[in-house]
């Protein structure tokens, strides 16, 4: 028998559905992994009851770009991102990345995933491209282990870098893979983990890191494999690499991707702040999405993505934290707030600002579209019970409760939520992750960070 959960008397349920419905003082009945009813005074005898008084309920946030391993490469002023160009920063930080092993991957992933869950994220994509001679190949496997413990819905991007420094990349030799190695491991991971069920908890994405650090054959073979296996494709694009691409190929990166078929409704890119308006139109026409990561753009002093123009050209924009080396946290609520403020900064010259609620739908509905997850992104009967709840019965929110749709980004509700549920299971509540002993994990993670990185890397001194 499927477990039933009844959220009783929720002050507001912000559905993010096509009609933008908000239900006041309503109940939500969940059976197994699905929402089965939303209404007044739902009667059931065999459900666990969650008291929704003073609680706002939202669809779970969906993170479409991250680098979990970087949570152990944070708070390092010795490689201060704002003072460097992207390519310069990559050159410095890869010298640290080459020390990372599978224990760092495991504990840094637990750290990032736990942070995401605490801040209302229920489904996360991670771009894992850090394969070293010390790490071995089973890094996504360790991440799957971490995700299962915490109960987060996980999309693993199997990345790679194949071009050596001698040919113009920023990658140390002991972090390079061959294209054949990469494709073989992608195929292994897809066969082992990829679940295409509508309520799947784990999927695989073929995600070569970035065009400037791989051979063109790596990207061509990625396209062939992904299309043969029916999985999605992802890479970094439009974040400062176009000058190099024009020198190498006499064309911009998006045109290079067009030539090899790395575009389409099964593809999304990270960043895109370097894209031109005509490239927006091309992305909209082809269905190619973009994950907007506000924190690294602000830290690096890069152009603010013109989200209004992207929307006008029907580009699917989603929201990402990005790696913690250029963000220093894994809170998508914080990224939501920052994205809104960034858009507001340019609102007059760009014909108005996206509303906080529009940004929320980018972080939920559009995230689901980006990952190809029809059952995620909104709170509706028949959809997955992925949600978070905030407690509004606190002094700091007094005077704001008349507008549940806009409160998160507008007011700056960026701290830990009251409850997070994934696939009908409560995984975080009242400040506690329910799948792990948080204190023990934190203690062991600190030991691993010290042993592998702090004791070995000059940047930590």
Automatic annotation (TrEMBL):
It comes from the Bacteria. Residues 56-427 form the Amidohydrolase-related domain. Pfam families: Amidohydro_1 (PF01979). Keywords: Hydrolase. InterPro entries: Amidohydro-rel, Metal-dep_hydrolase_composite, Metal_Hydrolase, MTA/SAH_deaminase. CDD domains: ATZ_TRZ_like. One of its GO terms (molecular function) is hydrolase activity, acting on carbon-nitrogen (but not peptide) bonds. The keyword Hydrolase applies. PANTHER family: AMIDOHYDROLASE-RELATED DOMAIN-CONTAINING PROTEIN (PTHR43794:SF11), AMINOHYDROLASE SSNA-RELATED (PTHR43794). This is Cytosine deaminase-like metal-dependent hydrolase. The lineage of its organism: Bacteria, Bacillati, Bacillota, Clostridia, Eubacteriales.
């Amino acid at each position: 028998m499927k477990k039933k959960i009844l959220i009783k008397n929720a002050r507001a349920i912000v559905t993010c559905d096509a009609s933008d419905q908000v239900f006041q003082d309503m109940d939500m009945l969940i059976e197994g992994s699905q929402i089965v009813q939303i209404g007044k005074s739902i009667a059931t005898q065999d459900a666990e009851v969650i008291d929704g008084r003073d609680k706002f309920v939202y669809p779970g946030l969906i993170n479409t770009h991250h680098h979990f391993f970087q949570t152990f490469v944070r708070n390092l002023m010795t490689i201060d991102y704002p003072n460097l160009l992207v390519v310069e920063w990559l050159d410095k930080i890869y010298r640290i990345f080459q020390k990372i092993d599978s224990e760092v991957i495991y504990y840094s992933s637990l750290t990032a995933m736990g942070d995401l869950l605490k801040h209302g994220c229920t489904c996360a994509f991670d771009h894992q491209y850090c394969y070293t001679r010390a790490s071995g190949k089973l890094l996504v496997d360790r991440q799957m282990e971490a995700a299962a413990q915490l109960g987060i819905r996980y999309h693993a991007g199997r990345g790679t870098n194949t071009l050596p420094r001698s040919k113009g990349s920023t990658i140390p030799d002991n972090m390079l893979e061959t294209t054949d190695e990469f494709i073989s491991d992608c195929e292994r991971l897809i066969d082992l983990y990829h679940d295409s069920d509508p309520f799947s908890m784990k999927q695989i994405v073929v995600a070569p890191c970035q065009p400037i650090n791989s051979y063109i054959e790596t990207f061509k073979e990625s396209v062939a494999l992904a299309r043969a296996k029916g999985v999605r494709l992802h890479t970094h694009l439009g974040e400062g690499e176009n000058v190099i691409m024009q020198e190498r190929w006499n064309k911009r990166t998006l045109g290079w991707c067009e030539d090899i078929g790395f575009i389409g409704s099964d593809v999304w890119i990270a960043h895109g702040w370097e894209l031109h308006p005509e490239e927006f139109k091309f992305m909209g026409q082809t269905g190619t999405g973009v994950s907007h990561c506000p924190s690294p753009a602000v830290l690096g002093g890069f152009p603010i993505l013109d989200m209004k123009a992207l929307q006008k050209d029907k580009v699917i924009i989603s929201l990402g934290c990005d790696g913690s080396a250029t963000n220093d946290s894994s809170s998508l609520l914080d990224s939501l707030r920052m994205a809104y403020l960034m858009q507001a900064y340019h609102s007059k010259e760009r014909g108005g600002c996206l509303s906080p609620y529009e940004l929320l739908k980018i972080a939920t509905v559009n995230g689901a579209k980006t990952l190809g997850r029809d059952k995620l992104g909104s709170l509706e009967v028949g959809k997955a019970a992925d949600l978070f709840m905030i407690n509004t019965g606190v002094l700091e929110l007094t005077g704001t409760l008349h507008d549940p749709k806009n409160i998160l980004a507008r007011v700056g509700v960026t701290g830990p939520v009251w409850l997070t549920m994934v696939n009908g299971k409560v995984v975080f509540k009242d400040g506690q992750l329910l799948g792990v002993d948080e204190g023990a994990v934190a203690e062991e993670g600190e030991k691993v960070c010290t042993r592998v990185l702090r004791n070995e890397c000059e940047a930590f001194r």
